[in-house]
Amino acid sequence: MTRSAGSTATRREFMAASGAALLAAQLPARAATRSAAHDRERLLAPFADELLAEYPENATALGIDHGARGALKSRLSDRSAEGQAAIASRVAARLERIGSIDLSALSPVERIDIDVLRTAHEFATEGMRFPYGDVALLNLNWSWRNAPYVVAQNTGAFLEIPGLLTEQHAVANRDDAESYLERLASYARQLDGETERLRSAAALGVIAPDFLLDKTLAQLRIAQGGDVSAWPLVASLVERTRGMGGTYGEHAARIAKDAVAPALARQLAELEAHRRRATADAGVWKLPHGDEYYAWCLVAGTTTRETPEEIHRRGEEELRALQARMDVILRDLGMTQGSVGERMTALGREPRYRYADTDADRARLMAYLHESVDRIRPRLPQAFAKLVPGRLEIKRMPPEVEPGAPGAYGGPGTIDGKVPGKFWINLHDMNVWRSYSLPTLVFHESIPGHVWQGEYTFGLPLARSLLAFNAYSEGWALYAEQLADELGVYDGDPLGRLGYLQSIAFRACRLVVDTGLHARRWTRDQAIQWFASTNGSGLEEVTSEVDRYCAWPGQACGYKIGHSEINRLRAQARQTLAARFDLRGFNDAIVECGGVPMLTLGRVVDTFTGFP
Questions:
Q1: 154 domain-assigned
Q2: Is residue 253 part of a domain?
Q3: In the chain, fewer beta carbons within 10 Å around the N or the C end?
Q4: Res. 25 pLDDT band, cuts 50 70 90
Q5: Where in the sequence is the domain holding 231, given as residue range(s)?
Q6: Angle at 488 between CA 598 and CA 385, to 5 degrees
């Protein structure tokens, strides 16, 4: 599923014409006239309204589900086959409208806005042509997790909607409570819509691997277990409507009992039927048009056109360079025998760096995360001229989500600042964590990583705030880890720097493992063993990681590719500008331009550095 030659030529011509002007508008060293903010907003407003109508959860995530957009607060997206087909039709029509816009009448910044909008819709349209899976590119809340399986251990309404309602859906008055109840009823319909699509996918032979289904079934049983009145979905509304009058809690319990629980049971039964037919084949090569599907997943995950073989080799090369740096530190620590992976494995076994499976050690770990944030905050003015508040809350994931979830994730709060950004940590298995690896995780997920970067997008037109690109956001988060090192966080702390380098090497390993699974037909066990032995990571951690790559093919490749591209662009800008290069100006330019594809960011900066 590739774009036509004519379309590719059009993009190349467009970027050649607008690239230099955009960077001139973004980089302080290249001052240029910018279009008034209200003109940009007016141009993009219709597209923002349509995206919100299709994915109303995003209005809640951004805190804009009130006033003229108040009706969105009672709605959820349509996850049925008919609903998804309708979205695909509207996306295709919108792409035609975007393509008809006269770029010559726009300012340079407006041109890049349109290019970003167009690229997102092009990628989404390509993915929606496959008769299976879930294309999430245009859905801000879950834009990174394009998935071949509608429901898996880390994909599906049963995981995503409870958190939306309990953590993001504000309940300040009776109208908010009524909207919550409407969404709770819609949640049951979403589950049934997904179950219908699971059934259709199975008819095509699209069934998740047995090991993913085992995890998913276990999580679904947790989600539907226990007293319905004690479910977080119900208890949250009970707690937040105290003193309002009415019987909101009782109503929520009835919906949960009469609609949600039966829908969960139906989805569980369908997945049990899948499990009886499932195999251990891990990669998407087994699916109809599997090679083409994986090629699209890589495009969506990396926003480049690199092939699986190119990405695999890149991972091997970058891993060698990173481990050469790790080797120096390990030797200074007196660890000289064995490969870097073997020495990191030995280091990870030392009790002093580990956490026990106790409430006391969970509290100790959480305190250490907060201490790491406190260490980085005062250093940020050295890296950025324009600072955002970096509002942040660190929380443990809900227990029903943890078994299939990644180790951590983070993102910004609401545009109005009333809801802070979140850094979620998975404490299901404490054996995963090592103290020397935690600071760099903090910088990745929170500040100056995802939470920090996300707040800059709030200054963009709303349509741009609604679009995120995996390689940009994850590449930035890895670059944030690098900035922490460059700002001196690890001075005098070789173990912390070793943890940081292992984290970056971990992402290089992902390039090898993801392409190994989906293009080279590695088995799950082969991927796990290679990952653990090569990077020195624990088996528990890499098992969860490998399972994630099986459910979200291509997504894990965006991290290192995005990170390497940002560094390439920085080196290019430094060489071109020489004494005029300003690190704070470069960082501001990259983070303020908001989420863009690597194709766009790379061509823009390449063009910029060619000017005197």
A1: yes
A2: yes
A3: C
A4: very low
A5: 148-280
A6: 55
